[in-house]
Each structure stands twice: as C-alpha cells, then as structure tokens.
Amino acid sequence: MKKTLLLLLLPAVVLLCWGCGGPQKKETAKLSVTASFYPMGELAKGVGGELIELRVLVPAGVEAHDFEPSPRAVTALGQSKVFVYNGLLEPWAQGALRAVAEQPVLACRAGEGLYRLPDGTEDPHVWLDLGKAQLETERICAAFCEADPAHADLYRRNAALYTAKLAELDAAYKELGRSSRRKTIVSSHAAFGHLAAAYGLKQEAVLGLSPEAEPTAAALGALTKTVRREGLAYIFMESGASERVARTLAKEAGVKVLPLDAAEGSGSGGRSFLQIAEENLRNLKKALQ
Q1: Model pLDDT, residue 113
Q2: How far is residue 134 CA from its own chain's centroid?
Q3: In this structure, are strands 256-259 and 234-237 parallel, antiparallel, or unpaired?
Q4: With CB atoms 3.0 to 4.6 Å apart as the test, which of 63, 128, 177, 255 could cross-link to 199 if both were Cys?
C-alpha cells in the first residue's frame, strides 16, 4: 500500500521540483532602445550588447535627411525606454519626440554640441571623428545607465571596451594624418568635414552636405584643377551619393575612384561601424601615401 501511494505521489513531486528549478526561471526583460539611423544603432549596440532590444528607425536605402517616420514607427518609439539620435541630421526627431511626450521615453541626443567645424559651419557627421564617436558612446552609456540602473556596471564595461577600440582606430587615423605626403581628399559628398578636421586633412567636395544635390559645371571644373594641382591619383565616392558625378570627375581628371563610407546609410552592407572605419583607413592610406 505504501509503495503504491509513493508511486502515485511521485509525478506530483517531480512537477513541483520542476516548477522550482532553473528551466522555469523567468528571463530579465531587455532594455527597449530605438536608434534614429545606422551609426547611432551601432554605437548603441556597442554599449548595450545583449542587454538591449534595438530598433533602428531609418530603413536601408533611405536617406536619414529625408526620412519621415510613419505612425507605426512613432508608436514603436513611444514604447521604447531610450531614443538615441545624433541631432541635426534628423529634422524629424523632435516632432516624433513631441508625439510621444506622454510616454516615458528617455531621449539621448548623442551629437549635441559636437557639430561645429573649425570654419564655423555645422556638419552632422560627427561620428567620423572617432574622438567624437567616443563622446557619443559615453553619452549613450549614461542614458542606458539612467534607464536601467540594475545593469549600469555592464553598460559601463561594454562602453569602456567599445571606446577602447574607437581610440585605437583614432590613433591610427592621427598617424595617417601626420605621415601622409598628401593632405587633400576629394569626395563626391561633403560628409567628411569632421574626419578631415580631426586628422589634419582637407576636404574638397563636388556636392554639399546633401548627397542628392547636383553639381555645377564650374564646380566640376574647379575640382578637376584641384586634383591635378595636388597630384592626386584617387578621388572618393561616398555610398549613397551620386556615382555618376564621381565617375565623371574621375574621367575628366584622369584619376581612379575609391570608396569612402560616411556610415550614414542604414545597414551599410552588413558591416559594423568599426569595420567601416577600418576600410576607410585603408583606402585613405592608399590615396594619400
């Protein structure tokens, strides 16, 4: 009788033990983060890693300048704990934040105060100065720590590792600027002002800050003279800018074309921001040394 009773109770005991064990342990919810476009998403991943659930608003193939968030995207933003954006490049960001003002979304404008170049103009592509990218990373880390203090130590550790990688690349760029015989980079899109200012280079661009602008014949002629005067063998074509413009200038000036990626486009071919920075460094060395 006792043996039979034990056999009857055994399944209940097993179920009770299973309910108390590890397999039923509830996982900690991830921090919900929305990033405006690709570079901000990359820096956010460097800080958050597996601790965050990341959504990037600007889809692949869409210019961040021209993007307009859909009602669905704004709703998703309102459900986030943190919104990471660069500022200046996303004129739609403030309107989207006003639309979700009643929601507890912590806004992190990572590029605030970093846009101004030595000539007084403002350029939103601050992440291409890897020293400024480190500052943006630290600001993102501070926002994550505020929104999710339980994991603050992990965010700080991730940020320290990521900024160390950025600092290593920053030092390599500075060495390139010091050692290069040539200092002028000619690009199809004026996205490299911060890169040039940080590393002792000079940018000459066919187009302005908008990659969709159309160049004048006078501008093409002036840049052709610059290429010949400086003895340049390459000009740079930025992804998302007009390939036709770069090819036309290269043909007129008798030079070749190399890619130089401002890392602005969402996705950037599946590469990480660090990989893009490394590829840019290799192409700059080829052109300037």
Answers
A1: 97
A2: 12
A3: parallel
A4: 177
H helix and E strand count, the chain: 10, 8
**What is the three-class DSSP state of 34?**
strand
Predicted local confidence at residue 205, as pLDDT: 79
Structure tokens at 182: 């040539």
* Cβ within 8 Å of residue 157, ≥6 positions away: none
Per-residue model confidence (pLDDT) at position 103: 96
Q: What is the CA 37 to chain-centroid distance, rounded?
A: 7
DSSP code of residue 234? E
Compute the distance between CA of residue 141 and CA of residue 82 in angstroms, rounded to an integer: 11
Phi, psi of 244 (to 5 degrees): -60, -40
Contacts of 48 (CB under 8 A, 6+ apart): 31, 33, 54, 144, 155, 158
CA-CA distance, 171 to 124, in Å (whole number)? 22
Helix locations, 107-208, DSSP H: 130-147, 152-179, 193-198
Side chain identity, residue 92: W
Domains of the chain: 31-171 (3.40.50.1980), 172-288 (3.40.50.1980)
Query: Count of CB atoms within 10 A of residue 73's CB?
Result: 18
Q: Distance (Å, rounded) from C-alpha 171 to C-alpha 161?
A: 16
What is the side-by-side order of every strand in the sheet holding 234-237? 202-205, 184-187, 234-237, 256-259
Distance CA 145, CA 140 (A): 9
Specify the pLDDT at position 210. Answer: 52
Q: What is the 3-state secondary structure (H, E, C) of 40-73?
A: HHHHHHHHHHHHEEEEECCCCCCCCCCCCCCHHH
Which tokens sit at 21? 């064990």
Length of the chain equals 289
Spell out, as residue ranges, where the chain has pLDDT lower than 70.
Answer: 1-28, 207-215, 239-243, 266-269
Token pair in block for residue 275: 């990989």
